[in-house]
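Sequence decides. Our protein:
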Amino acid sequence: MKLLYMIKDRILIYALGIPIWLFLIWKGEFYYTMFILICTVLALGEFYSITENNGAQPLRWMGMVSSVFIADYYYRRPDIILHEMQDGVIAIGGIILIIILTCIWELFSEKENPGQNISATLAGILFIPVLLGTAIDLRQFDDWAGTQLTLTLVLAIWACDTVAFILGTLFGTKKIFPSVSPKKSWIGSISGLVASLGVFIAFHNQGWLGDYFSLKDAIVFGIITGCFGQIGDFLESSLKRDAGIKDSGTLLAGHGGVLDRFDSLIFATPLTYLYVHFLMHY
């Protein structure tokens, strides 16, 4: 009975969230970029709240301003390739500027624990906007290549999360990370990985993923999404447990915060981004 209630609860969230997200993926361009930017800013704010529970005083404004510039960078320059010097200079120069400004501001603020404050500020920028921002680039790639990679990735993450939850709750006995996430089991995690692979392979076989990708690519994407998406979930659980909190935020009443909903994307999306750009040479 409890399982049915929890499933009903998740279905309600998905029924509200999936159509909006799918619409924004379909629209792409500015609309999708703004959606990811808003989610990034909210998730970063929740991350900083977690670090504040551990005594840090991150520079929130630096993180928020950096999020805007990073989102703009991913939106305007989706063709980042290693040999393109201009893109490399802009990216590295931006990172250097963020680090220097953060350190200088912290120096003159005279707060306690400056090292912890700087670390929390920069960790948040690297963990949220830099990693999650790659979702913007992948959507730009879809327009260029005529693919549906972003759509498939999001559906694969939802499938992984749902199947892992249901089968893990019903049959999971041996826990995978009891010290981090006591309810997650090996059966749940493996079934989630299989579900993710199934979505990518099905989309490829039906031609919905796009002609640009082979079956091998679809399998790699499925493994990245199913495996590393769950690792992102475990990492966020570890951060919350260290801070002594259950949810990252309260925006989604009863379902935690934005970071709780996007933790799987934080690892799955950038690794997919790296595969597309540097192994497929897009």
Observations:
- The first helix runs from residue 2 to 27.
- The chain has a mean pLDDT of 85.
- Residues 181 and 206 are 36 Å apart (CA to CA).
